[in-house]
């Protein structure tokens, strides 16, 4: 039987199943204003008003009340709003969970991370007791709402997420992205690399999992593959990765060999247990300073032990503590400086009733904000803590005295 034309086409399709995306889908850098027709950042809801920040809450409305923007921050809805207000940091959500392989529900993450906060209104002190830095005072920050998602259409969603986050970096703001499952780091970090240059961005990636799988059967996109695609596309080369917290039973040796070939820098949980978190964090900070011009933090909340972060897609027992991750995020933002961050894999349906996973993510964002403010103020010394926070007075003496008189 002769090979007919349709048969050849079938074979071709089979051999090239990786060519799922349209030509140039990931290669073509996009800039603000290009291809934004019908896009969420330029809809017609907000035509005919002057650009700038919208205050969506009254000052007296506490964290549990009012309209749930992140930290009761004012709202920005367009790139013009970001530019007009000179926004330094824009918090935004990507409510997408359709590329999770385990437990779903991370599409509810962004709203839960915003809503779990008890800390009150914008315009009140938001002072960090560890550092005595108030990011809300030092920085212009806004809640940028959520990226558009198209249920059932991963390719279109990821392209829109890439554009949406591209508008934020192009407008001069640091995007802090609330996931969403971890697959969104693929379009998110690609957007940041589009702006700063492919190969110019480094990622410190906190995770129980390497996320370097080549594919899920039938699809490139899953929350186990984003780092592989960022490396394959050249947006973020392997040598620009520092990974912290890897443990459990995945990936396999073949994937670890591939990661070594890419010169990824990996810190497994075993190294943390053997030598202590702080020693590994020092190495991660050194490597981040060494590695790239612009740092992106990708925080999968499952890097923390399920005791601290039960509400997540693929929990892996034996992880780091809440305190470890909060300090790590702040140190990287302060000492290295960051251009973007994502906090992903918070799944509210699997969280406990105290919303501890969402609250941990919320505080990780706040620590990033504090670190960004410290970096802008020039507080970049290693592991800075305000003397008062560690029990010292202005002269460096112990602040807390024992008044008991001896017999
Ligand atoms: Mn992950």
TrEMBL record:
GO BP annotations, alphabetical order: putrescine biosynthetic process from arginine, via agmatine
Record Pfam families: Arginase
Annotated keywords: Hydrolase, Metal-binding
Keyword presence, Metal-binding: yes
Gene3D superfamilies, per database record: Ureohydrolase domain
GO MF, any single term: metal ion binding
SUPFAM superfamilies: Arginase/deacetylase
InterPro entries attached to this UniProt entry: Agmatinase-rel (IPR005925), Ureohydrolase (IPR006035), Ureohydrolase_dom_sf (IPR023696), Ureohydrolase_Mn_BS (IPR020855)
Biased amino acid composition, Basic and acidic residues: 1-21
Region spans: Disordered: 1-53
Protein family according to the UniProt entry: Belongs to the arginase family. Agmatinase subfamily.
UniProt name for this protein: Agmatinase
Protein's organism: Krasilnikoviella flava
Lineage start: Bacteria, Bacillati, Actinomycetota, Actinomycetes, Micrococcales
């Amino acid at each position: 039987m002769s090979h007919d034309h349709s048969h050849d086409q079938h074979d071709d399709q089979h051999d090239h199943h990786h060519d799922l995306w349209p030509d140039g889908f990931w290669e073509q850098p996009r800039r603000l204003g290009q291809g934004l027709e019908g896009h969420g950042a330029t809809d017609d809801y907000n035509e005919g008003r002057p650009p700038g920040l919208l205050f969506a809450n009254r000052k007296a409305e506490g964290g549990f009340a009012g309209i749930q923007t992140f930290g009761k921050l004012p709202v920005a809805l367009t790139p013009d709003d970001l530019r007009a207000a000179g926004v330094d940091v824009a918090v935004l959500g990507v409510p997408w969970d359709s590329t999770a392989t385990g437990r779903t529900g991370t599409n509810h993450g962004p709203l839960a991370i915003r809503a779990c906060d008890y800390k009150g209104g914008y315009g009140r002190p938001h002072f960090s007791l560890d550092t005595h830095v108030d990011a809300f005072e030092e920085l212009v920050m806004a809640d940028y709402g959520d990226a558009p998602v198209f249920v059932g259409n991963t390719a279109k969603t990821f392209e829109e997420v890439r554009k949406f986050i591209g508008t934020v970096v192009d407008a001069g703001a640091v995007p802090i992205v609330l996931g969403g499952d971890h697959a969104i780091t693929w379009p998110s970090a690609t957007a940041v690399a589009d702006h700063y240059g492919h190969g110019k961005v480094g990622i410190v990636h906190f995770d129980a999992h390497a996320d370097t799988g080549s594919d899920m059967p039938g699809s490139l996109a899953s929350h186990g593959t984003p780092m592989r695609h960022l490396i394959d596309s050249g947006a973020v080369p392997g040598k620009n990765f520092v990974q912290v917290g890897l443990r459990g039973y995945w990936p396999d040796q073949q994937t670890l060999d591939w990661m070594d070939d890419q010169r990824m820098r990996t810190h497994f949980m075993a190294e943390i247990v053997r030598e202590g978190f702080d020693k590994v964090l020092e190495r991660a900070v050194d490597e981040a300073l060494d590695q790239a011009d612009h740092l992106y933090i990708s925080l999968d909340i499952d890097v923390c032990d399920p005791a601290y972060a039960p509400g997540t897609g693929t929990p892996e027992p034996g992880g780091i503590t809440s305190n470890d991750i909060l300090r790590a995020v702040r140190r990287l933002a302060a000492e290295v400086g960051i251009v973007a961050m994502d906090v992903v894999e918070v799944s509210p349906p699997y969280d406990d009733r105290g919303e501890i996973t969402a609250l941990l993510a919320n505080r990780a964002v706040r620590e990033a904000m504090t670190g960004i403010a410290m970096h802008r103020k020039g507080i970049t010394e290693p592991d800075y803590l305000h003397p008062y926070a560690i029990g010292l007075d202005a002269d460096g003496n112990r602040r807390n005295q024992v008044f008991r008189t001896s017999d």
